[in-house]
Specification:
This protein has 338 residues and is of the alpha/beta class. It contains 18 helices and 5 strands. Helices cover 65% and strands 8% of the residues.
Amino acid sequence: MAKYKLEEISPKDVQFNRQNPRGESPEEIQNDKTFEQLKDSVAQFGVLVPIVVHEAKTKGRKKYILVDGERRLRAAIVTNRSEIPAHIATSEDKMGELVQAFHIHMLRKQWKPVAIALAFKRIRIELKKKEKGKSDKELLRELRARTGCTNKQLEDLQRAVHYDAQVLKDVNAGKIQWSHLVQFEASFVEQLDQHYPELLKKLGKPEVRKVLVEKAQQKVIGATRDFIDNIMPIVQRAKTAREKKLAEALFEKFITMPDLPPEAVRLTYDKAFPPPKNQLELSEAIVKNCDLLNPMIEQIISAQIISFPKAAKELKKTMETLEKTVSRKLRQLTKVMG
């Protein structure tokens, strides 16, 4: 159980944490315009929000190790503050310290997903050491209990941490989107692993991830929906041996040809195995008829229709059935589309 006590401490007694959750270097902090504003504030008013530290377990020059507040600490040092407020956190072990830091970072709405992913990665590594022999499902349950994340959050974090530090830095720099990493795994790597394991083994997961990142950086892969709209439909439709053989060949070509976009893969597959027309026609008919149905429903005035009890009852029953059907189909579509 984590405990905290608030004290005034010297900034010089605090050792910076090498694993900065934001992934920033000291130079990046110094060159940030907002850091200049923070220095001005600290020089005039002091550190208003306490930093968080824990006591160093090994003897050295510094008494404390920073958990949260690197920018405030650096601003205090630069402006020669003799003392600053600090929450001193205590925990039973390294795992506890990591979880403390993770929860602090999760509360920071301005922090990017990459910072959370890096903190999560350290917790996962430590948990694997501590809980040897546990299955992935058991580890997932343990991580959910310790971090308070939902299954969806954990799944996305676990997908993103497959990528190295440089890729995560590129996400922070806006060279590639966080959602790209999530969809690379969910809509491609995991699909190959499940449906075409031999192809994934042949290509190699690291190489596949490297190619996907390069394609996104070169804009060969555009929006993250490229995988949902062009790769997932092939995975779902390829059922026969012939269909699967072509799908596998196209997925291999997609990885081995740097300039081949996802849309070209789907168009080639559609040419050989056209999508079922009845589904396309049905979808178009629903969209068309909804354009007619919505205005009709909007014209219903509850206070007036109640004057016709039988009609009101039938209308209510029809709309309830429609609501159930639409809700069910919407859930199915959302699950498929991600």
